[in-house]
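Researcher: For the record, we're logging two predictions in this thread. I'll number them. Prediction 1 follows.
Model: Prediction 1, sequence and structure:
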Amino acid sequence: MDAGPSNHRARRRGTSVVGIIGHRFLVWEVERVDDRMTLAAYKEKMKELPLVSVFCSCLFADPLDKPTYKAEDAVDLNWCVIKDVEVIELNKRASGQAFEVILKPPSFDGVPEFNTGLPQRRDPSLEEIQKKLEAAEERRKCQEAELLKHLAEKREHEREVMQKAIEENNNFIKMAKEKLEQKMEANKENREALLAAMLERLQEKDKHAEEVRKNKELKEEACR
């Protein structure tokens, strides 16, 4: 909230008003303007002040009597630096004065580095390098052996699957052949039976024709 002596004025003698902007604090003092101000006018003027200014004026109210300042108490507020605080004068009038207090951001200049206490990494010796190489070679051989074993197991599985497929195919062919032979045998038997029935009918027909012929001849002889 930004509040300044040029925008709002408190109507009591020695009143301190504080405004806050981020990390900046605005503080000023104003004097009483009129002792005969009515209560309604005072309330209207108080409504114009921000809520923070009214709250701070209630908490930090100075006594009615204006303190007397000495020459040795004067401080140059144009630009003064006190440790991590900067004070800049904003406005100075007969009714009071205002200045700005700026808090500096934190600094990490004096913080020690974290890696200073860590031990320095030393260079490996020739023996250590040789051991690492031998261990790497051993790991490589183990990986190759595992890979070859996996490939052999995979090929064996493929061979078993292929053999099983061949056996199933042979069994299917055998069963199909047996069914076909059975069907052909049944067809042969049916055909032979059909031929035998046809021959029997033909023989009966020939026998009947022979009997008819003999009867006809007998009738012709009898008529003579």
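Researcher: Logged. Prediction 2.
Model: Prediction 2, sequence and structure:
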Amino acid sequence: DPVTGVEMASTGEVACFGRTKYEAYMKALVATGFRLPKKNILLSIGAYKDKQELLPSIEKLHKLGYSLYATAGTADFLEEHGVPCKFLEALQDDEQRTEYSLTHALANNLIDLYINLPSSNRFRRPANYMSKGYRTRRMAVDYQTPLVTNVKNAKILIEAIARNYDMAVSSLDYQTFAELPSTSLEEPIAKQTPSLQELLHNSPFKGRDITSVNQFTRKELHLLMTVASEMRLGVERDGVLDILKNKLLCLMFYEPSTRTSSSFDAAMKRLGGQCIMINESHSSTKKGETLSDTIRTLDQYGDAIVLRHPDDDSADVAAEAADHPIINAGNGSREHPTQAFLDLFTIREEVGTANGLTITFVGDLKYGRTVHSLCELLKHYDCTINLVAPKEIGLPEKVRSGLQSRGQLGAESHELTPEIVAKSDVIYCTRVQKERFEDLSLYEKVKDGLVVSAATLKHAKKNMIVMHPLPRNLELSPEVDNDPRAAYFRQMKYGMFVRMALLALVMAS
């Protein structure tokens, strides 16, 4: 007896994980676009056996506060068993009375969920397959009202709703009433995944200066990356979080900055806090004020200070002068810790891990503070690092010898050869920084020596990525932008999440 049915409105399968079958089932429904009911549920149950089987579940819906509507036979059955409901009838168009019209309720999306269990009377269906029940099921599909046509599905859905799973919450709130089990165990029981609030409350960074990547252990880096992932989810879900509400961040930049300054500004505001932005041209530095005095001044206004300064020792000077935390946003050509953190996060997000990779640094390795910091950070991971730069702007010997002593130093070259490109999982480009050169003739000699172009990437792996801290000049061709392996614009967005995580870990109450 094949007949047209709404059961074939769509095809495909969804598989979801859950701690219970009810959570997994609800996740699977949500994944298909199924909308969970908020208030009004319509019931139309054909067979008496199905009515009896579903009755306990319907009673649960009533106790949960849902408004129940039912067609004639179902309404009578529920009233007999003490479950209040409102009667709706599928009347003809010329007989419509709005308050009792099932058609009107479906057409105006007044119903959040329609449970319609067709009659199993095999003698009636072939003769009257276009029944009112069928037409209302068809109408539910047409008006995109969530529809359930199987008693087992209805029971598990109602039980899942009764268990009150909140699909919008990513962290888990819980309270331990007793230590379970009470017997001694040789193996420890599984630990609960900590919530974001717990991670921030137990932060090892709270109130600390962030001046160098060398301050961080691998465990602390893992915490920072975990919180950054939570921030990403929070922004995608809520837009603005209130973790740093009533907190004030001072931004002091003695060098030009687009990404770092705006990223910190956006990160603080995404966390619900406020910023004061000061640049050198509007500060008392023009009147001869020292860095220490400027920092002591800002220290009176804010809860933390982000500083970028051309002097290599500026971060240490500021940390000595301030009572509140100092966050280094670049000190001369020495370090750029927060850029290194976001670079590491980018590698983890784009490639999956920092272990087992070959990372090739290309360009100005002498003055590229982002390279210096990332090289130090990568000592916590099992990776190979290639160095490609003109000899005049090669990696400082201190950083290079560190890589060599750890067994991480791979190929060294003055040219980006196809062989190096083919083995690279990450190509990290840097700009040749004109402002760092005392001899401009040397800058002119090396500025265009290394260029990553579409032709370069013909030799690269399909799943590798190209990174750049930006801004760029000619070292990275714009034609690479449309290659899916170009990660540098995504890298900027990751930077906001990492800086949100860092600010929260340092400043949260």
